[in-house]
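re: the backbone from monday

yeah here it is again, tokenized this time
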């Protein structure tokens, strides 16, 4: 049995707000960081920038630019379903091309 007392609702809300403020910036940069790490692993496993790896790096750069344009630079577009459908379809196409490569 635990002898701890439950946290009052107001303190719990403050705690959640505290962490939400800190996680949002992380969640904004995380896709870019993961894309860079994955691209670096591809380059390292190929032994450097060969012609084939250059195509992979180009696809990764295109995916990063796609995310940057549609989400990071135009935050208001997130509420527009048509644009987000285009964004998602394009991102899926880029990811499929990277997986196929």
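seq for it, each position gets an aa:
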């Amino acid at each position: 049995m635990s002898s701890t007392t439950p946290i009052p609702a107001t303190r719990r809300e403050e705690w959640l707000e505290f962490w939400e403020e800190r996680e949002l910036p992380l969640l904004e940069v995380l896709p870019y960081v993961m894309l860079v790490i994955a691209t670096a692993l591809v380059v390292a496993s190929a032994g450097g920038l060969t012609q084939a790896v250059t195509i992979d790096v180009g696809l990764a750069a295109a995916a990063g630019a796609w995310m940057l344009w549609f989400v990071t630079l135009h935050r208001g577009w997130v509420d527009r379903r048509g644009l987000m459908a285009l964004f998602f379809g394009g991102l899926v196409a880029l990811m499929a091309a990277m997986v196929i490569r």
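Residues 41 and 47 are 10 Å apart (CA to CA). The chain is about 80% helix and 0% strand.
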